[in-house]
Design a protein that fits this description.
This protein is an alpha+beta fold. Helix content is 30%, strand content 23%.
Length: 148
Amino acid sequence: MERNGLRYGRRLGSFLGQLLVPERCARQLQFHQLTRKFADLCVRCFGIHGCADTHYGGLVRVTCEDKQKEWLGAEKDDTFRGGCVTNIKEFTTAIRAGKAINSAEAAVESNLTAILGRMAAYRERTVTWEEMMASTEKWEAGNLKLKW
């Protein structure tokens, strides 16, 4: 289906998933594409006694049963700008010192986690890390023209 020049539907839709990591906490993931509504990166970690609600560039807070330990946080933070400045400083320092920075492992794990979530959403079932790694599916964007 196409509306206002954007394609909607299953392929470019919204997803809600749960990432289960053995011996760690579960993570809920919700993401959307091309909705032009919210441009928010958010991580919520739920525990037995509370929740951390973190929005990059927005509200960050911790709520819990013990009101003395709650932190109502801040409305805005400097995650993007501060993180970017820190990364550039560390990169420049490493180059000047002749030390390599290799964040390839973290980048690959992040991308593979996104692929895992997408596979599970499209298949409408649980997909294991091993199943995803053994897959021969190709994920290509094609000639998608995005206007941000």
